[in-house]
Amino acid sequence: MSESAPRRVRVTSPRTSAARAQRVPAAREIDAQTRLGEVYMSSLIRSQLRLALLALAALVVFVGGIPLVFWLAPDLSDIEVLAVPLPWLLLAFAVYPFLLLVGWLYVRAAERNERAFTDVLDRT
Asked: How does pLDDT run across 26-63, given as a tens digit for each residue?
């Protein structure tokens, strides 16, 4: 079989000088303050605001809940640990580890939001 494979033919557009559509990076949309850039930034700001409000609500419930518990159950106020009344012990010492935990979780979640935002920008 001496038949050779058919010759490859390259097909090109007759409009080779036609302008090609350029993809504009999303980061440039943000820098140029276009409507699309506003949408990207408002979505990031909304997610960060939602996260901040969630952290604030957790703090209000926990820190504000301690006095409320002792107001609703006054017998708990009589409990002493190492000669310190339980309400004072909780308000003076137990609140700070909780604040650190909420702060640490907030920073991790905020960084995750920012990474997701940059991933979206890199994909577009």
From this structure: 566 665 667 777 787 888 899 999 999 999 999 999 88
pLDDT score for 30: 63
- 32 occurs within a structural domain: yes
Look at residue 1 and tell me if it is in a domain: no
Three-state DSSP string of the chain: CCCCCCCCCCCCCCCCCCCCCCCCCHHHHHHCCCHHHHHHHHHHHHHHHHHHHHHHHHHHHHHHHHHHHHHHCHHHHHCEECCEEHHHHHHHHHHHHHHHHHHHHHHHHHHHHHHHHHHHHHHC
pTM over 0.85: no
Q: How far apart are CA 78 and CA 64, in angstroms?
A: 20
Average pLDDT score over the chain: 81
Range(s) of the domain holding residue 65: 27-123
Task: Give the number of domains in the chain.
Answer: 1
In a domain? residue 41: yes
Structural domain includes residue 37: yes
